[in-house]
Structure prediction request, 674 residues.
Amino acid sequence: MGSSLTESEALLKLKSSFTKAGALNSWVNGSLPCQGEVGWDGLVCSNGLVTDIRLGGFGLSGKIDVDALLELSYLRSISIMSNNFSGPIPEFNRLGSLRAIYLSRNRFSGEIPSDYFANMGSLKKVYLSSNMFTGKIPSSLAQIPRLSELLLDNNQFSGTIPSIDQPTLAALDVENNNLEGEIPSSLTKFNASTFKGNGGLCGEPLGNECKVAAEQPAGSKNTNISKNMIIAIVVAAAVLLMIIVVTIVRSRKKKRDEFDVLEHEKRNSEEHVEVRVSQSGSSRKEANSIHKKGSSSSRRGSNHGKGNMAVDLVVVNNEKGVFGLSDLMRASAEVLGNGSSGSAYKAVMANGVAVVVKRMREMNALGRDQFDAEIRQLASLQHWNILPPLAYHFRKDEKLLVYEYIPKGSLLYLLHGDRGPSHAELNWPTRLKIVQGIAEGMGYLHTELAYSSIPHGNLKSSNILLSPDFDPLLIDYGFFPLINPLDAAQALFAFKAPEAAIFGLISPKCDVYSLGIVILEILTGKYPSQYLNSNKGGTDVVEWVNSAIADHRQSELFDPEIASSRNSIGEMKKLLHIGAACTESDPEQRLDMMEAIRRIEEVQVEGGQEDRTMNVVPSLRDGYEDSFPQITFEARNSYDGLGGLSRTRLESHSFVSQSSGRPSTDDNFVFAIP
Ligand SMILES: Nc1ncnc2c1ncn2[C@@H]1O[C@H](COP(=O)(O)OP(=O)(O)OP(=O)(O)O)[C@@H](O)[C@H]1O
Prediction:
């Protein structure tokens, strides 16, 4: 059928294929599906177009009109989890560009054709858990090049597990089916819980040996052995070849001049130094040193669009103007640091604009076009707590990302670095404001990048910059699809969540764990050992906080620099419990992002009331008997940030002693705040 429907017509057609669709009452003619706050429920949009359908738990049943879905050209994922759909698997395989299908917890049944996934080359996540699928696990799953999460548990799949050997596969669950035979060697990295509940399965993860060899007819064992030997020889040869190639490439690379600013470390950062970039594209063999002085504007505009991408910067956000590599090359540069995913340099261009250039080591997961699309998507995000990239440079073996330089630096630096004036300003209200800003930014990312299993992926205090007013700005978000899958665990902090570190299970809850670590870091003022790979140094903030909470020693945990703000202890404790709930080792028990955000938003309101209650008693001593209920009292205003006293006159508000009889100085008072 032709592509003739508008998005809203297509979605209404989809809705009409459902039999129970009461939860979709925002889907009506006359309104637009993607319109900020008032858009239709269950949709994620980008630039006014539907990218993801999220109808989990909407109580839906009936049919799913895939023809209607075909009209949504930008659709990347569909979730209909936890509904009442039944019958055979819908023909989502006609939507070849989907990245994720989430069908878990419905009543789908029957066999899935073995070639069902053959034309779904963009898929990354397949969730079919807790349905009633039967027959073999479709072998075409092995053809999805970048499959990363495959959940088939709690169905009735039978037969052997096909050899799914994509190195990208980070999460797998086939438990509670009727599978049999040997677990393919490519899947032995997963543990027993992945496979349990399948009587006939055997192999290393389950700790039971397969007896297949003994039952094989004579001769087949030899064939297997020789087959294995051939595979081993081929693999060894391939590894050897790779080592040789890598060695040659590395030694050549050393000789070539690259974005070589290392010398700057020895020099004065103010000095004007030459930054050289090797040229890619057609004349890549020769290093191209550009050090001719000239007007930076001479190249302006040349880097816009894809035309000059091979050798120049692609500006994806021109808020700071348009600039090219030549402008960076002539800039005075300074090394900022060398993180787990690359190194960062500050470059001040001739026009005075200061930027940070990040050289990303492990960002080779995508080809040029996909990389371009991903970065543009990240750059299109707009939120006051997000710092989007300005430009990128793409070469096969190196990527550069350019950001606006933020002078105040990172939260990491302010908390643990020098004790300059900005550090002194990190009082409690400022810290709470920072946490709330981080939460807002995370909420935004989890909505806008909801299709990603870890929308931020690298939240830690060095990736939180601070505006002059201490508003947090999140950076290095959304990198998960860009990073080489095998390096992701090393490069991204979200992989430190216990379930990711131990079982390779990644989900948005990994970001919640990272948020929890930042919260505990802000409250305790300690550098978390979780940031270190070596396990040496830092404080295991999760362990420390949990044991102090268990022993009712919470007050000892707070950074001495904020602990003196005694009338805010209630707020701090509240936030501490949120931090602890975000760092729960079991992801099922851990807060989810939206709940964490909601609770963070509430810290101040409830904590504030508590403060006022605590401070009202001393001033009641001055003759409350006469003036009650017209009482003047002093309350420490926890919002002014200075711990100062503010006089408030309580006139007509209700005032209740929590003990019976006359108010006394031992009482707690609860009263309404105007
Ligand atoms: N736009 C920026 N403005 C100011 N400082 C920045 C900016 N971007 C990064 N930085 C700082 O530069 C330093 C080095 O950053 P880099 O990203 O290389 O390391 P990292 O954040 O420690 O680790 P990772 O590579 O995992 O993100 C960090 O302290 C970071 O806070």
In short: Residues 214-226, 251-310, 606-674 have pLDDT under 50 and may be disordered. The pocket of adenosine-5'-triphosphate is lined by residues 336-344, 356, 358, 403-406, 409-410, 412-413, 458, 462-463, 465, 475-476 (CB under 6 Å). The first helix runs from residue 7 to 17. Residues 431 and 542 are 19 Å apart (CA to CA).
